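Box 3.1 — From sequence to structure: Lipoprotein
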Amino acid sequence: MKLRPALATLPLVATLTLLGGCASPLAGKPADLATRQVLRENMQHASYNFSGELGFNTLHGSSEDDAKPQLSYTINEVARSTKVSVTGAIDQASKRMELIPAFRFERRNLQASVTLPLELNLQDFSLLVDPSAFDLFVPELHSEQPRFVRFQLPPDIASKIPLDAMLQALPGLVDEGYGKVEQQAFALETLDATAKELGASYQLRIAMSPQQENQVLLHVLDGLAKVVTQQAEHDGRPQDGKQAEQLLQLVRELTQGRSANQALSKSVSHLYANRRGQLLGVNQSVELNTPQLRGEAYIHLRYSNHGKPTFVHQPTAANIIDYDKLPKPQWLKGLQEPEQQ
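Predicted structure (token representation):
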């Protein structure tokens, strides 16, 4: 008999548990906060596979180029026929990223492509490159088995980079950066065909000018530079902190100059997220309107295998060679011989 009150509460407990489990971190949030939540989640738990494509719908040169019909036609058709597809994986735990871009040129009865597998490992600040696409022109790169060439940051430089502190600060800096953008730039949209294809529960829109994008970028870079500076001062290396500030100033000047030249350009991004706030995909269109280029580019990205990314390549010591141990190409030896004489 004493069990009856406890048993009577089970349906209520089960219902509350289910409701709690179904509650979305995006529920009830305005578009700007929901967008920031999705982006922050994507960076805090950066372990997934991704794929995508970049290309142009239209591209035209300057007004002088438009005055030449054949040149204008060629620029537009070459741009539309050229695409970059990417696949890859990110594993936050091992600080490892695989990126496999494929550069394609496709027209009726004409196809050409080049694939360049890359792997970035932040554990030892190394970049692995599979250069087999070019071994026809540089026979010294040829290998019957897959082989990666390793480029590695010198240890004395790598040891000065506070990587863990930078990675820890990055999600918050991105969140703060988007928090500086006007709320009117964000919107919650009705689910479209892409959302239904991806199984998304939320579709968010960001419309930003180059000035706004650069504002976010500079906030992130400024924050990372402060992390580097603080660590350098803590380690008794104030000069390294000053160098980081100088580099940031150079980037700031370049970015401001770029945004001034792109004052009439803009980008619109559609973000697709599931109920848990995980990013499933991004469709972005970029309108170019500068004195040198006018047109529309697109970027489509898809994310999958959240928390369980899979890697296409598994390089081992047996199939990795440092770039300075590669045999020098014959043409390079020929250039060096006169110098030695």
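Summary of the box: The longest strand covers residues 47-60.
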